[in-house]
Amino acid sequence: MENQEFGRSDLGLCAFLSMKHKLLRLDKTDPKKVIFIFESTEELLKDANEYWNGGGDFQEYYKSIRTLKNRIYDE
User: Fold this and answer.
1) Measured between alpha carbons, how far is residue 30 from residues 27, 33, 47, 67, 72 in Å?
2) CA 63 to CA 53: how far, in whole Å?
3) pTM (2 decimals)?
């Protein structure tokens, strides 16, 4: 079975997901936005729903946002 990818541009969601899931790459095809690409798994989709329902460790979350912003500008 072929691996599916999960790509989103929502920095908050992707920062939350990157705390537990490996970020595969950034798609900067559109110069006005970055798409963060993860491997789509059941656990990742569950965690995305948790984010939208307000769950999670917010101290780690804000560290993750800073890390993703660094990745955007360093690549």
Assistant:
1) 8, 6, 26, 21, 13
2) 20
3) 0.78
b/e per residue, 48-67, with b = 16+ CB within 10 A? beebeeeebeeeeeeebbee
Domain count, the chain: 1
Residue range of the domain that includes 16: 5-74
CA atoms within 13 A on the CB side of 72: 18
Block means of pLDDT (10 residues each) for the chain, 75 residues, are: 85 91 96 96 94 78 86 82
At residue 75, the pLDDT reads 67
